[in-house]
Fold this sequence. Notes:
Helices cover 19% and strands 29% of the residues. It is α+β, with helices and mostly antiparallel strands and 495 residues long. The protein has 2 domains: 4-189, Jelly Rolls; 243-492, Vaccinia Virus protein VP39 (Rossmann fold), CATH 3.40.50.150. The strands form 4 sheets. Strands 12, 13, 14, 15, 17, 19, 20 and 21 form an 8-stranded mixed β-sheet that branches. Strands 1, 2, 3, 5, 8, 10 and 11 form a 7-stranded antiparallel β-sheet that branches. A 4-stranded antiparallel β-sheet has the order 4-9-6-7, with no helix packed on it. Helix 5 (300-306) links the parallel strand 12 and strand 13. Helix 5 (300-306) crosses helix 7 and helix 8 runs parallel beside helix 9 (431-443). The termini are far apart. The model is unreliable at 143-155, 157-218 and 323-329 (pLDDT under 50).
Amino acid sequence: xxxxxxxxxxxxxxxxxxxxxxxxxxxxxxxxxxxxxxxxxxxxxxxxxxxxxxxxxxxxxxxxxxxxxxxxxxxxxxxxxxxxxxxxxxxxxxxxxxxxxxxxxxxxxxxxxxxxxxxxxxxxxxxxxxxxxxxxxxxxxxxxxxxxxxxxxxxxxxxxxxxxxxxxxxxxxxxxxxxxxxxxxxxxxxxxxxxxxxxxxxxxxxxxxxxxxxxxxxxxxxxxxxxxxxxxxxxxxxxxxxxxxxxxxxxxxxxxxxxxxxxxxxxxxxxxxxxxxxxxxxxxxxxxxxxxxxxxxxxxxxxxxxxxxxxxxxxxxxxxxxxxxxxxxxxxxxxxxxxxxxxxxxxxxxxxxxxxxxxxxxxxxxxxxxxxxxxxxxxxxxxxxxxxxxxxxxxxxxxxxxxxxxxxxxxxxxxxxxxxxxxxxxxxxxxxxxxxxxxxxxxxxxxxxxxxxxxxxxxxxxxxxxxxxxxxxxxxxxxxxxxxxxxxxxxxxxx
Length: 495
């Protein structure tokens, strides 16, 4: 059954697009913006070898570049990835493809085309070909109807003469030098690119080279400190999120303290950044009073209570909360939603933590004399760049006592120091905005911890997450036309 395949036409309900539209039986991209030109079909596949391909209209010349990958599960853990350049598709069947292997059965498998800006194409179909799969498993897949018989496409026979003559070559090689050069090359021609590396719980899911080339798998992983330990040295010594912090023993220790597995995600870095710098400044001690803004359901209130701090946790009033926050579990409306039983006993938590609503654009006058305050990726949601900067100053001068410490994280635009998103539900702060904020705080008599903004030395620091975003590997991501990452600022009130 080597030449059996699942074929989906462009108008199949199992296929989706974020930057194109469905017309007749095709998905049409017309000089699209950066984003996902195609994703789906979210099917369950047995273990085995496969080849996924995307075919374009033969009467049209597609243009543009991007990235093709195969993912497992709804959280998009990467199985295989490869570059594509549609301008090279001339004559004969126009298609791009990628080989991949599953070492065990996978649910919700999807194929994605991550497109750079300007891609123009008419997608006729997407196909998943069974290359080396147990016949009984294929029959079971047919019998189960892929979960919804009304949407399941027919199995089709793929004639040998129609097989693609060439595979897209996987950019990873046997040396780190070639890995990094592939990344640099891709970033040179994509405005917001993505080298996809895997961070998987199951080590059997790895990148593999194409058929006919000796297998040499790769993955990005965080070491088990009980086996090989973690690095010492510099930790949280930059203002922006860098890969090196994730491999530090203090980061692993922080993750253990909140009961989460260490993984390469900037949100986890933000929590660790706040905790590290509040501890480093001596703010965390029994009896210390702290105020958190826009806390959502983060673990910090429970961790602070465990260490004896008295915490006021706040979030936006219900009328100001976006539906996205509530639907994705990033918003809290009561103290019950903040409690983390794996971190602190409930009686300690309820003794130490209280909850209130707070409009970060209008901090109440009676919210004052705290030893420390913090926010994690919140002040970019206050409507404008200026509102966000004003909040940081107000959190220092209205909330803290003299000598108190404020630690805030937010979005940093790393692709432009001029153009950015200045207004809206999410704004992106430029380097010039951060520098102006530091100057403003210092002129008002406050001390800002000197933390540089650095590019990073690992190729992981060059990876850019594209929508639909990954829950595993996401240090930098694309928002609109810009690439953003997390940054933090640490301020001690002077007067």
